[in-house]
Write a structure and sequence with these properties.
Strand order of the largest sheet: 1-2-3-5-4
Order of helices and strands: EEEHEEEHHHHEEEEHHHH
Helix content: 40-55%
Mean pLDDT: 94
Largest sheet: 5 strands, antiparallel
Radius of gyration: 18 Å
Number of strands: 10
Strand content: 15-25%
Low-confidence stretches: none
Length: 249
C-alpha cells in the first residue's frame, strides 16, 4: 500500500491514490463504527447498479482504519463547473438527473433517514420546545424508502474522460424521503455561498421530478437542524437560521 500521492484531505481523513486503487486513511481517533458503516453503505449501494467505486478492502495501517476502493480517473463536476462556467446549466441538468437516478433505487439494508434525523435533532443545542416541534414535523412527513446520498454535491461526482459519471462518498447514505436529500443539497449550495445555483438547482429538480417546491421547503428546518450538530461555528449559525418551525405552512 503506497501512500505517496495525496488526492484529497478531508476532516480527519486523507485520501491517496495507489495505481488503480483509492486509499482513504482515517485519523486514529476516528470512530471504528463510522468507518465500518461507511464501507458497508458503499458495499450495499453497489448492489443497486449505480455507477460508484467498488469497495476492495477494509483494513488497518499503523493503528489507523483504511478503506480501499477503485480509483476513478476524471474530474469532479465541481471542477468542470468552475472551468466551464458557460456550461453550468448543462452540468446542473446532469447533476439533477443523477440525483433522480439515485433516488429511483431502493436498498433495504441502509439505515433509515428518519431515525438518523431524529437522533441528530436530539443532539442539538436547540431548546426543548423547538426540538419537540422538529420531531413532530419529521414524524408527520411521508415515509419513503428511496436511496438518499446524504452529501450530494458536485464535488462528489466524477466524470471520466469518456463522459461516464461516478458518484463518490457514501458515508452518509440512508433510505428515506428523497425531498429531504434535495433540501440537504440546496443547503450545501447555500453554505458554499452560491444561492443563485441553489435556487436554480431546486427549481430544476422540482420541475424534472414533478415535486412541489413547497414540499421540499418543509424539509429545510428539519434537515438544517439535523446537520447543525457538525461543522464549524459559521456553518452551525447559518443552518440554525433555517430552523423556524413556528409556521408549518
Amino acid at each position: 500500500m503506497k501512500l505517496d500521492k495525496v488526492i484529497a484531505v478531508r476532516n480527519k481523513k486523507t485520501v491517496y491514490r495507489d495505481g488503480d486503487r483509492c486509499i482513504k486513511v482515517f485519523n486514529e481517533d476516528y470512530s471504528k463504527a463510522d468507518v465500518l458503516n461507511e464501507a458497508l453503505n458503499q458495499a450495499r449501494v453497489e448492489t443497486t447498479g449505480l455507477n460508484i467505486p467498488k469497495i476492495l478492502e477494509v483494513s488497518t495501517l499503523d493503528g489507523k482504519w483504511v478503506i480501499v476502493s477503485e480509483y476513478i480517473a476524471g474530474k469532479t463536476l465541481a471542477q468542470l463547473m468552475q472551468e466551464n462556467p458557460e456550461k453550468t446549466d448543462e452540468y446542473l441538468e446532469l447533476f439533477v438527473d443523477l440525483q433522480i437516478d439515485v433516488q429511483s433505487k431502493t436498498c433495504p439494508g441502509l439505515n433509515k433517514l428518519k431515525d438518523k434525523m431524529n437522533r441528530k435533532i436530539s443532539e442539538t443545542d436547540l431548546d426543548a420546545t423547538t426540538r419537540y416541534d422538529l420531531h413532530t414535523r419529521l414524524e408527520g412527513m411521508p415515509k419513503h424508502n428511496k436511496v438518499c446520498h446524504g452529501d450530494f454535491n458536485p464535488s462528489n461526482i466524477i466524470i471520466t474522460d469518456d463522459g461516464k459519471p461516478y458518484i463518490l462518498d457514501w458515508a452518509h447514505a440512508t433510505q428515506g424521503n428523497a425531498s429531504a436529500d434535495v433540501a440537504r443539497t440546496y443547503l450545501l449550495f447555500c453554505l458554499a455561498g452560491d444561492t443563485e445555483t441553489a435556487n436554480k438547482y431546486l427549481k430544476l429538480f422540482c420541475k424534472k421530478s414533478n415535486t412541489a417546491k413547497q414540499y421540499v421547503q418543509k424539509w429545510m428546518p428539519i434537515v438544517a437542524a439535523s446537520q447543525s450538530v457538525k461543522g464549524n461555528e459559521h456553518e452551525r449559525e447559518f443552518l440554525l437560521s433555517w430552523v423556524d418551525v413556528v409556521d408549518y405552512e
